[in-house]
Specification:
Helices cover 7% and strands 46% of the residues. It is mainly beta. The protein has one domain: Jelly Rolls (Sandwich). The strands form three sheets. The protein has a five-stranded antiparallel beta sheet, with no helix packed on it. Strands 8-7-10-5-12 form a five-stranded antiparallel beta sheet. The protein binds thymidine-5'-diphosphate (TYD). Thymidine-5'-diphosphate (TYD) binds next to strand 4 and strand 5.
C-alpha cells in the first residue's frame, strides 16, 4: 500500500528549530487538532478506521509505530521526527504502538469529532472495503 510521508519545513537557528504545517502542505484543511501523550509503554492506540476522515500524524516528541492496513496489505511505519508527518487517508485501518517514553503524537484531522465516522470492528472494516 502507498505510504504517504510528508516532509515539513524546518527553520533552524541558534535558538532552536521551528516546523510548520501550513495550508497546501497537507491535502485537507484541518478542523481539529488533538494529541496523545503520557502513553504507557506497551499501550496500543487506534484500532479503527474512518469512513471519511483524513488525518495527518506527527511524532512531536519521541517515537511510535503506526500500522496501516487497507484491507489487503498491512505496513508498519515508524514516526520519530517532528519535521515529518504521515498522511492517513480515509478508509484505512490504523493501529499505533511502541510509544517511546515521552512520545507525543500530534494529529490534524479534516473534520470535527464524529463517532459515526468510526469503524471500530475489523470485520466491519473489511465489509466496508468491499462494498
Ligand atoms: P479514540 O479515537 O478511540 O482514540 P485512539 O484512536 O487514539 O486510540 O478516542 C478515545 C476517546 O476519546 C473516545 O472515547 C473518543 C474520545 N475523543 C473525543 O472525544 N474527541 C476526539 O477528537 C477524539 C480523537 C477522541
Amino acid at each position: 500500500m502507498k505510504i504517504i510521508k510528508i516532509k515539513l519545513p524546518k527553520i533552524k537557528d541558534r535558538r532552536g528549530n521551528l516546523s510548520v504545517i501550513e495550508k497546501d502542505v497537507i491535502p485537507f484543511v484541518s478542523k481539529r487538532v488533538y494529541y496523545l501523550y503520557d502513553v504507557p509503554s506497551g499501550a496500543k492506540r487506534g484500532g479503527h478506521a474512518h469512513k471519511n476522515l483524513q488525518q495527518f500524524v506527527v511524532a512531536l516528541s519521541g517515537s511510535f509505530d503506526v500500522i496501516l492496513d487497507n484491507g489487503k496489505t498491512r505496513e508498519r511505519v515508524t514516526l520519530n521526527r517532528p519535521d515529518e508527518g504521515l498522511l492517513i487517508e480515509n478508509g484505512t485501518w490504523r493501529e499505533m504502538e511502541n510509544f517511546s517514553s515521552g512520545g507525543i503524537c500530534l494529529v490534524l484531522a479534516s473534520a470535527e469529532y464524529d463517532e459515526w465516522d468510526y469503524i471500530r470492528d475489523y470485520d466491519d472494516f473489511l465489509k466496508f472495503k468491499t462494498q
